[in-house]
Each structure stands twice: as structure tokens, then as C-alpha cells.
Amino acid sequence: MHEKMHLNNKINKSTWKEILTDATKRKMIIVPTNEYDFFNVYQLFGPQASFEEIRQAAARICRDYLNGRWKEVPTEQLIVKRISGGLSNFLYYVSLPQDCGATTTSNEVNDSGASTSLMSTLPQSDNDENRNEPDFNDLLSAGDCNGNKRKRYDSSSSTLASAFRQKEPKEVLLRIYGQSHGEDALEQMITESVVFALLSERHFGPRLYGIFPGGRLEQYIPARALLTSELAIPDISMKIAEKMAEIHTLNIPMSKEPDWLWNCMERWQRYLPDILKPNSKWPDQEAVSFMRGIDYDKEVLWLKGVINMHKFPVLFCHNDMQEGNILMKTITNDESDGTVDVALENISMSSEDATIETGSKKASADLDSSGDSAIDNANGCTIPDLKIIDFEYCAYNYRGFDLANHFLEWTFNYSRSDFPFYYYHSENYPTKEQRDQFIRTYLKKFNDKEDEWEPTQKEIDDVDGEVTVFRMMSHLFWSLWSLMNVTSNIEFGYWDYAVCRIKEYLHLKQAYITDHMMTV
Asked: Which residue among 72, 164, 191, 394 has its CA within the 20 to 30 Å range from the CA of 234?
């Protein structure tokens, strides 16, 4: 792939083809003969679509991108499950029928990743904020694999079929992007797909089977997402610090300037007048009225001025290291072979894998945590093996943003089943001691090529100073993001969340001004 790729403001099919063609030459992406319309794909999988329509669309995409039995199995025999709970995308689990006999599961692709059962790996909810028991019935039933269907005379049905099927996944993850906001947003999605392809090629994150305007097809390997309460467990927190450091050392062929953060907010600000104008359809008129009093242009300019007063480090960042994007399987000390520190194995679940919808009923993925929770096993007899996934927001950015954003995720729990569908516990923000230990571990891993290197307390305090500034930025950024999603069909209190985040930003801003004796 070219070291630099300049995308025009207007994205059309020819531009998309050029990007995919270039990626295909490197065998990173399989381009289907069919074309997909970005603006129609979202509708095909939206909440108005019937299960049968969703299965038909999913089957078509899988036939285009996958070989072997995927090209032969009748549509009505595919297993399709809606994985919900995310705030940005729609996710679908798609699998061949159980008796279809694919020789290799997605767990074996790329020769990495350890499999566990689907039932034991879905996220759980915190003990004090439980949700209903799950219903794990398939949304769409599967039959056998002996349907009457004309054979396709391609590589998968030739005498080489068994060789091809050695690399044939049995189950995949279909990601459909949520609502876009203008052509700039489409450009951002293309950039994201290119970066995802690069990371996949380097064995960071899940294997990529294909991308198309409106979504992508990924490797699916089930694993358990962390709980919010587990982020504070020392062993787990230190592992997260190491994983973040490993991400920050990556050299990705894209702009090294921290433009992503500012470009996102600038793009979102352009849509604010339409979103905030009087509209009786908004359910929370009090929140709308409050948000109309916020001058986002002024706040962004003020914070940008504060940041530009310093030379904060800019690195390749994840930008969304919350508990749902951190997967874990627990390995006992006896089982450890020294490989548990290998970062970012090929795992494909995300923060959006919180619940499974069955029919019109939304069921939680809460499971019995006995023998399964890191809280029960964090007594020194186990080693947390963490996998970081979902690089949707990854870009070169200020290091302090990644750190501050993660610390703030200690305070937000998205497992709530009723409005506003999240809990906020400001008292759970890490203490100075907890932050120091995290930053110390992070710096040691980031500089691990230097033997016996130890950060000084001043170096730790300097990084914590970055966190102080970007803690404000995290609140401001996600408040704007939430406003952009108020029309989303995903069930979440976007207005409420936007108010919560902007209030926290204003509180921290006032404290910062007081501490630094500044004037607004």
C-alpha cells in the first residue's frame, strides 16, 4: 500500500475501487464482483429490515468474500445472530450450519488465538448492576448442509476444494457501519478500513476477509470482554498499560500529525446547528435546551490553545481503550509458556458484542461469573492474557488522550439495561497511586529496549500532567460524538450522555483555570 494516500473530499466508486485494487494486489482484501452501495447497506441491515432480509444480505456478502462451502450452502441454512449493544455499528455473527463440516474454524486462521466456547466468552455485567438472563437461541435457524443448489464451478468446487477449505472459516463477523455524516465521514471510514487492513496484515487484530462501502467482514474468535470493575484490578491494569505501550510503538504509514482529533470535532461541529435547532421529536427537551447553551466552537478553540502551549508526544493511539475493547482469557501459572505477553492476537469481538437480540426481545449476555471472573481469580494464581481489539478510532494522536480516555473508562459502565443505558461513577476515577503505577508500567514497556530502565517520579508526574489536560479533551470529544448520534437507531441515551460529558468537561476546565491562574 502506498506510504501516503491522499483522499479527495468527494468519495465515489472509482476512488473506492482504486483503494481496494491497491490493497488487493497485496492480497489483503478480496474484492467481490458485485458492488455495494454504501448508502444502501445500512438500510439492508437496519432495524426496519426483517430477519430474512438480513440473512439474505449477509449470505450474499459471505458468498462474495469467502470460498468453499460459503459459496454452496443455501441461504436459509446459514446461522445468523445479531450482536447488539454497540454505540456505533451493527454486528452480525454468521456461521455455517453445524453439520456442514468445515475443516478449519476461524480460531485457526493465522495460526493464533485460543478458542473458548461462545457461551463462556460473552461479556458479563457487574454484580451490582445486573441485567436479565440471556436467551441464546439463534435468531435465524439453520438446517443441514445438503440443500438442492447448483454447484459453482470455481476453485472451491474443483479437485482443489479440500486444500481451499483448510483455510475456510466456519464463522465470521459481519460489521455494518452506523450512520455517516457527510462525505468526510465516508472518507474517514475508508481510511479506517485501510488501517484495519494494515493491522490485519501485521497480525494485529482480527483477520480481514473483505471490506466494502458500508462495512467489512472480519475473523470471529470469541473471547470474554472485561467488566468495567475489572479495569482497576492491579494485575489487569498493568497488562493494559503494557498493551497500550505496545500499540504506541507501532509505526503506521499514515500522517504523523495529530489531525484526527481536530478533524473529527471540526466535522461534527458543522452539523451542530441542524441537530440543536428546535425539534419536537427529541425525547429529552431539557437536555436539548441545555446543549444549546454550549458554545462548542469556543470550547474547542480554548482547549486547542491550552494544548498548543505544550509539546505533547504524538504516537499511534487506539483512542478507545474501554473495557469492551479489551478481551481476556485466563491462563494459570502452570499453563503459562512465556507467550502470554504477545500483544494483540487475532481476536474479533468488540464493545459492541454486549448483547444478543432474539426476535424483538433484547437479551443480555450476562453469565454466571463463578470461576470465570478476573475478580475471583486475581489472587496471584492466574496471569491475565489480554487482547486489544476494535481499532475503529485508531490514529496518530496525543499520547495523553489515550491515557486519560482509558482512565475515564473506569467511571463509565455501559451494561445498564434501562435508560440512559450507562452508569457513571465519578468516584471510580483512578487515584494518583493507581495512575502512577499504570504510567510507570507503561513507560517501562515503552522503553523496554533499554535494560533495567526505570522512570523517575518526575517523568511519571509529567505524563500525569498530560492526563490532566486530555481528561478535559476526552469529555469534550465524546460529548460532541454523542450529539452526532442522537438520530441513531441504536438504543442509548445519547442526549443524556452528551450532557454528562460536557458537564464534566466544564467542571474540569474551571478547575484547570483555577489551578493555573488563567483567564478564559
From this structure: 394
pTM of the model: 0.71
Q: Which three cell numbers stand for residue 31?
A: 474484492
Query: Cα–Cα–Cα angle for 276, 281, 287, nearest 5°?
Result: 50
Sorted by sequence, the CB contacts under 8 Å of residue 108 that are 6+ apart come out as: none
Quick one: CA torsion of 72, 76, 81, 86, rounded to 10 degrees? 80
pLDDT (0 to 100) of residue 3: 36
Our measurement of the distance from residue 268's CA atom to the centroid of its chain's CA atoms, rounded to an integer in Å, reads 20
Residue by residue, DSSP assigns 283-314 as S-HHHHHHHHT--HHHHHHHHHHHHHTS---E
- Measured from the Cβ of residue 252, the count of other Cβ atoms closer than 10 Å reads 16
Contact 367, 134 (CB under 8 A): yes
Can you list the domains of the chain with their CATH numbers? 13-222 (3.30.200.20), 225-261+308-356+381-515 (3.90.1200.10)
Residue 213: which residues within 8 A CB-CB, separation 6 or more?
13, 16, 36, 37, 38, 41, 186
Q: Is the pLDDT reported for residue 116 higher than 70? A: no
471-490 pLDDT, tens per residue? 999 999 999 999 999 988 78
Could you give the percent of the chain with pLDDT greater than 90? 46
Residue type, 80: V
Distance (Å, whole) CA 69 – CA 168: 8
Q: Residue 165 — pLDDT band, cuts 50, 70, 90?
A: low
User: Quick one: which of 206, 203, 202 has its CA closest to 223?
Assistant: 206
- E strands within 105-154? none
